[in-house]
Every structure is written in structure tokens, then in C-alpha cells.
Amino acid sequence: MPVTIKDVARNAGVSLSTVSLVINNKANVSPAMRAKVERAIHDLNFHPRRNARGLASKKTHNLGFILTDNHFSFTEPFYTKVFLGTEFEGRKHNYYILLTTVPKTFKDDDSVVPRFLLEKNVDGVILAGKVPVKLLEYIHKLKLPIVLVDYCSGRVKTSCVLIDNNQGMQLAVKHLLEHGHRQIAFIGADLQHPSIFERLAGYKTALQENQIAADENLIFCSAPDLGPDEGYKAAQELENSGQKFTAIVAANDAMAIGAMRFLKEKEYKIPSDISIIGFDDVEICLQTEPRLTTIRVLKEELGAIAVRRIVETINEGTKIINRVTVPVELKKRDSVAPVRYD
Amino acid sequence: MPVTIKDVARNAGVSLSTVSLVINNKANVSPAMRAKVERAIHDLNFHPRRNARGLASKKTHNLGFILTDNHFSFTEPFYTKVFLGTEFEGRKHNYYILLTTVPKTFKDDDSVVPRFLLEKNVDGVILAGKVPVKLLEYIHKLKLPIVLVDYCSGRVKTSCVLIDNNQGMQLAVKHLLEHGHRQIAFIGADLQHPSIFERLAGYKTALQENQIAADENLIFCSAPDLGPDEGYKAAQELENSGQKFTAIVAANDAMAIGAMRFLKEKEYKIPSDISIIGFDDVEICLQTEPRLTTIRVLKEELGAIAVRRIVETINEGTKIINRVTVPVELKKRDSVAPVRYD
DNA sequence: ACCAGCAATCGAAACGTTTCGAGAAACGAT
DNA sequence: ATCGTTTCTCGAAACGTTTCGATTGCTGGT
User: Fold this and answer.
1) Are A68 and A123 contained in the same domain?
2) Is B284 in Cβ contact with A48 (below 8 Å)?
3) Are residues A231 and A208 in the same domain?
4) B336 in a structural domain
5) CATH number of the structural domain spanning residue B313
6) Does A169 share its domain with A279?
7) In this complex, which of B87, B94, B288 lies closest to A99 when CB atoms are compared?
8) Distance CA B235, CA B253 (A)
9) Are residues A145 and A236 in the same domain?
10) What CATH number corresponds to the domain at position A12?
11) What are phi and psi of A170, to 5 degrees?
12) pLDDT in tens, chain B (342 residues)
């Protein structure tokens, strides 16, 4: 019943293989033949089946997108945007994205390995955020192209799409310095994650470049994750520590928002008493009171670049591994004010 | 190189078909044989290829998820959650979800028809929000199972997973009535969308049940979409109209948030001057100032139910069309206060 | 002892493409 | 004219499963 390549061949009076050549835009088919076939394809409204093509060509035209459970729950708005970026870019290249999460304690065990890997149902894999090295090694063994987003592993060499974390945090700190702040606290989390580490590094660099000694007592990185509650607690610790501070930079917006909640509960006025800057520019920043000044990260763009990279390596079979860093910008809003001298 | 069903058959000393029977858990295979085959499968670490299975069985184990461009951009946090609900429930049933958007002016044209439909790469389709009837008819012709989420079409009969909009809005309005409010405005949008229409209906019902005549001058539904900017404008119109009002119910949270922005700019205090209630309970509600009282909708659950329904109809081949309505609850937070008499 | 009926197993075709190598046709150089 | 190339087209095998009908071997009723 459904129209197949056979029907097209018959209708056009050519062989199956010729039709296939036309479909796949291969060279060495005469214009006349091509026209005839295209006519038939159009007349019959033919569309080759993905499954059949996949079996014959060993290409699925799917890409896997993997992140860890905890990244997804704590920083969902961020990674959701990245995913959407892959989805839309994927469509342009005729790829669908299969999304899945893995536990961060991944081990090489069928019950936990993403099904699309077992079933060989993807042509490449994009992984976002810090992912278990075991998983990377597993995928590497499968000989599948890999692109990492917002992470880079020393153990397994892959292409990476990175955020300019260091530069971003420098922008934030310098912005505060320009407003006269000198006691600037940093609240973050697990420094195992390179992105957070880099943000902290950027913080230190910016201070040093302005002849200010980074004070370890103003750095709070004991939180295990990057959620608002962790931000709340970090701000709490900061205040309890008795350290004087006039501004906070947070490792991401979620933490900044949590910190704002704490500060407001304590009757601090933002930004007049305390200035604060986030990182990522998720949508909520526009709805906070005051609206959160932050470092804008082009999240969809990260995903889109990852897709382009992986499609390239699929098509060209090139093994070239590269690393691209996506720039970042300071998005000024209402959570920063000049320091008060009183 | 990769291990196939053939290798398993050889290793277990049985025929291809027997292995297939075991893989698919079919009846009529002796325990002894089953054990032997399972052993071989495990020893060889065999996993059948999705593509090959798909070609032979005409099942892709993919589901399509479609929404319209404008729904996605204006109410992204809502539909993203629904999508995530499908994704996670899909995984439990061994289905992947292929996400795509269509323009709301869909016409039956290859450049716009989702590729997974052309390529016969899904076993069923979930559509969320109001979708073009042309698209429904197109999918219907393909004989694919369809489930609608947060929409129901009179033209094409399908299963639907619905929100109890009417009841939800009644809860909201009654909550305000209990706080003494009598002039309650409704801000919404395009009444062509059944969900919005039902919410408005719930608003009217609640008022009538309390012997209050619904005042058409307090109803603002001219916005084309449901975003914050539309909420802002609706609140503006409301205020410009000169009508007295002490509370607002919004057709969704995004509009409520926009309205709050307007009210704050005009120096109204929320909730002491004006109370406001949203609908959907998206995450931003927790970050607004004050935190937005709203009607909680189980968004992931909507998606999950849709997947279960569609998987049932795929497996059982049943043509049963049903409609399930997911209940809703009032989530009290800080944007409602007793009316002031002054 | 015989046979109907059933359960378990198997062989072969089918699913709808791609791809590879072979053959035919056209061409240019000698 | 002849021959070696190049260009175009085709036939057939291959991809890795599922499925259907056929076959074999049992079971139990007579």
C-alpha cells in the first residue's frame, strides 16, 4: 500500500539503484534521468523510510543528548535551553535528538546505559555538563562521535563546546569594582566541575588585576549542587561568618536567586545594601525583584554549535577534535548599585 | 563485527526464529530453550538493532511530540514540562520522543509536515495545546494513533488529556471571594483556545454561584497570546478603563506576571492593594515578589498520561477514544490578601 | 496401535533501502 | 577503425530483524 522506491522506479522506468542515487544526490546521474525520477517521486509523493535507510546505510539520523540526573534537576532551565538549541539545529540538518539522563554514578551496566546506545540508534552523542568518565569511555568504545557541552574531560579526548567562564566572571567582578565594591564574596559549589572552577578563577584574576587580594574567607564553595537552596545556605554562611561584604557574585543564577531570598529575609536591600550578580541569564532573572544583573550565556547557541560539530564529524568522518569557546557578555540590570560609604 | 541475532542462534544452537521468539517474549517456547537462548544473549552481550526491528516489524518505538511555534515561544515553561513528562514516561515504555514544532498556519505541504511523519518514523503522535485541524486530519489519514494534551478537537475525534480548567478557575475565584473581593477582573487571551474559554467559564460560574453578576467590563481577552507582555497590556487596559477592581485572575502565570509588573510600575502594592492569582504553577511563581498564588497543574503528569494512553492504543490496537481530565489544585502563596475597605 | 491435535522449533520470505561491481554506451586519441 | 577511458545505468546482494507456514515430535483419547 505505501509507496516505495520500487513504485518510483517502475513509474519512472528506471532501476531501483538509480532512484536511490537520485534520492541521495549522488554524482553520475544524467540530468534527464534525474528529472524523470524526481518527477515520479513528486507524483507519487514518495518519501523513503527512515528505518529502511537506516538498516541499509547504518545511519540512523538520530543524535543522543545525555545529561546527568542531578544537573537536570538543579539547573534544568539552563540545560533545557541547550537541549532546545540542539533540537532546532538538528532539524536543520535532518537529525532528531533523543534525550536521556543517566545517574551521575554511571556504571557500565545494561540497566543504566541509555537504550539508544545499546540499540545503536544514534549516529553521535552530545553530552552536557559534567558527565561520568566511565560513560565517556563507554561511548568512546562504541566509536561514536562525541561532543561535550560545558565540560571537557582530560581522560577522554573529545570535541568540546565551552563557555568563556573565566572571562565572564571577570566581567562581573570588574563591573562591581567599577561601582566601588571591594569586599566581594563568591558563592559557588563543587569545584570538581571545571566550569565552576573557572568561574572562581576568573573571580580571583579580576581581583588580582586590580591589586586586591582575594580573601578566602569570602569564598563559599561547599555546596554539593547549584540550586537556589544551596545559594540560600551559602549566603547564610557568608552572613554568619561575620565577614564584611558589599557584593556577591554567584556561580550561577539559581544560586544568586537563593542568596537574594536569604538577603531579603534578613531585610537587606538589594542593590542598595548589597549588590549581586548571577551567571547564565536564565529567564527567571527578568522576574526577580530587582531584576538580576548577570552574565549572559547563549545557551541555545551552545547546543546548536554542538550539533554542527557532530554533524560535521559524522559526514566527513574526520577525527579532528577541536574546542570552541563561546563568548559571554555582561547583562546589566537592577541588582548592582554603587557601594555606600557609611 | 557487531553481534547479531545470527551469532546468538549459532552460539545457542538454535534457529534465528527461536531467538527472535525469545527476544520478543512470545509464547510457545520451552523453558529449556528460553534459558539457553538467554544465556547466549547475555554471554554475547547482544542487543537487537532498533533499525532492523523497525524494518521488519513496522514499529519504530518512537513517538512524535508536536506543538505550534507560538505556543512554544509564549508558554515555553509550561509545554517544556509536559514534554519532559512524555520523555520520562516514554523511557519506561521503551519509547523515545521526537520533538518538533509546526507553524500554527499549518498546511499540508512537505516543507512543513514534520519529517518524522513523512519518513514514517513514529508509532504515534502526541500534540500539545491548540493545534491546526489540518494537521490533525493529516495525521489521522496516516492512521497513526493520536493523543491530544490540553486541547480537544471537535473535528477529529481523538483521545485527549485535559486540565480541569473550569474547576481550577473556580477555585481561584472562590479563594478571592473568601477574602472579600467582589470586583475581580479576568485577563486572558484568544478565546478560540478551549482551555482559555473554560477558564473564563469557570470564572463566570464561580461568580454566579455567589450571586455576583459577571461584569463584562472586567473581562479582558483581546490579547492574541498568553505571554507576560500581553498580561502587562491587559492590566494596562484594565486600569485605563477606569473600572474599579480589587483583584485579578489571569488565564495563566505568564500573564499574571506581566500584570504584576504593570501594577508595580503604577505603585500598586501586591497583595495589599490588588490581589492576583495565576494559573499553571510554573517555576517562576516562586521567584516573583510576592510569590504568586496560582492553580497548580501537574504538567509532567499530563505528558505521562498521554504517553500511557498512546502506548496502550499502539499495543492493543484498540480504537477506543477516551478523554481524561487531570485535577488541579489551588496553591496558596503570597499574592492574595483580604480586600481593604477604604 | 492409531490418529487428531497441539506445542515447540525451524526455514524462508519479507521489510525498503543502499551499495558494489559489472556492463553498456559514448567519447577521444591514435 | 581500434582501443582505452569515462560516464551512466542496472542487477543483485546485503543490512538484521520479524513472521508465517511447514515440520516434527508428543500427548492422550479411542
Assistant:
1) yes
2) no
3) yes
4) no
5) 3.40.50.2300
6) yes
7) B87
8) 14
9) no
10) 1.10.260.40
11) -60, -40
12) 689 999 999 999 999 999 999 999 988 888 889 999 999 999 999 999 999 999 999 999 999 999 998 887 778 889 999 999 999 999 999 999 999 999 989 988 888 999 999 999 999 999 999 999 999 999 999 999 999 999 999 899 999 999 999 999 999 999 999 999 999 999 999 898 899 999 999 999 999 999 999 999 999 999 998 988 999 999 999 999 999 999 999 999 999 999 999 999 999 999 999 999 999 999 888 888 899 999 999 999 999 999 999 999 999 877 788 999 999 999 999 999 999 876
Which neighbouring-strand residues pair with B296? Answer: B280, B329
Contact: A119, B50; criterion CB under 8 Å: yes
Give the separation between CA A88 and CA B309, rounded to whole angstroms: 27
Does residue A107 sit at the B interface (CB-CB below 8 Å)? Answer: no
CA-to-C1' distance for B29 and D30, Å?
30
Residues A243 and A201 in one domain: yes
Distance CA A339, CA B4 (A): 69
B98 in A contact zone (CB under 8 Å): yes
Amino acid at A11: N
Query: Protein footprint on strand D: which nucleotides are under 7 Å from a CB?
Result: 7-21
B213 is a domain residue: yes
* B48 at A interface, C-beta within 8 A: yes
- A51, A91, A287 ranked by CB distance to B287: nearest: A287
Rounded Cα distance between B230 and B259, Å, is 8
Contacts of B84 in chain A (CB under 8 A): 80
Separation of alpha carbons B135 and B142, rounded Å: 11
Question: Tell me, what amino acid is at A5?
Answer: I
Contact check, Cβ <8 Å, A289/B284: no
Q: B75 and B154 share a domain?
A: yes
Nearest to B118 by CA among A187, A143, A23: A23
Residues A169 and A285 in one domain: yes
Domain of residue A149 covers 62-164+300-328
Number of structural domains found in chain A? 3
Contact A80/B at CB under 8 A: yes
In angstroms, what CA-CA distances link A75 with A72, A129, A251, A281, B311?
6, 10, 12, 12, 30
> Alpha-carbon Rg of chain A, whole angstroms?
25
- Asked if residues B66 and B127 have their Cβ atoms less than 8 Å apart, the reply is yes
* Chain A positions in Cβ-Cβ contact with residue B87 (cut-off 8 Å): 99-100
User: How far is it between the farthest Cα atoms of chain B?
Assistant: 90
- Any domain includes B335: no
Q: Does residue A180 sit within a domain?
A: yes
Query: Do residues B122 and B310 lie in contact, with contact meaning Cβ atoms separated by under 8 Å?
Result: no
Please indicate, yes or no, whether residues B184 and B282 belong to a single structural domain of this protein. Answer: yes
